[in-house]
Amino acid sequence: MRPTLAGARLDGMAQTLLGYVDDITSAVREAAASLVGTVRLGLSPSLVPGLAGYLEERFAEEHQQARIEIVEALPMFLGEWVEAGRLDLAVFTHRPGHVNPHLSVTAVGSDEMLLVGRNGTLAALGDHVTPGVLRSLRLVLTPGFHDLLRASVALGEVSEDIGSRTDSIHMVRDLVARGEYCSVLPYTFVRDDLDAGVLGAVAFAPALERQLVAVTRAGRQPSPAARAVIEMAEVRLGELAALRGRVRPSEPPGWR
To answer: What is the pTM of this model?
Structure first.
């Protein structure tokens, strides 16, 4: 059987409409998969050198309809701002024993802590840090890293009053770079200074690490944009951990 002229025209129109439906379905899927709007991310100061530029660049490349806005602040403020809805998520050092039922916590990686000093200052030390070495040095520490140091089982002999303290990790870095103090700082924060030979570092044995987490508001699913940021942060921290493992044996200018 052959369709009439009217039937053929109707069939053509039907095929066109079906094509439109397919196009609409594809467009809806693409819109659902693409991210739009602004995701507000909080980073602790010690993570800004390792994560901020990477996340901004990669987010811009992969999600051109969305924007990432990064706020730098201390973890105590970042947690409050996530809880209040001022930030979509935040990434900072996990503090064991500090549980907030209003926040959901996702582990994103770890970061090695190192004893650092102006390049050449630590040349006389052994291959690894001991409690005796720490007691012999003039130290300045942030409160959070002081607590991390004190909580280390391997360094149980470290006294409560070890080191001077300041909240500003940037001030700590400057004091160390000038040779006035030594400190315990994370690899991701001092990596560029180690590579440039500005600072020197000695590792702990066993390794002293901080655990890093992403926090979002509890009781609700993170947005697709927030989940994308968490995945990117995990990837970047994994890359930095692998780099840390590769550079250790060859001992670049700042390593011992």
So the answer is: 0.81
Q: Per the structure, how many domains does the chain have? A: 1
Top-confidence residue, 136 or 231: 231
Token pair in block for residue 220: 């609700």
> Domain limits at 128?
111-210
Distance CA 132, CA 42 (A): 37
Mean pLDDT of all residues in 232-248: 85
Residue 22 domain-assigned (yes or no)? no
Strands 183-186 and 89-93: unpaired
Tokens of 241: 């951990």
Q: Which two tokens stand for residue 183?
A: 């400190």
Helical spans, DSSP H, in 136-212: 143-151, 169-177, 187-196
Which pairs count as long-range contacts for 148-151, CB under 8 Å and 24+ apart, including other chains?
148/93, 148/113, 148/184, 148/208, 148/210, 149/113, 149/184, 149/208, 151/96
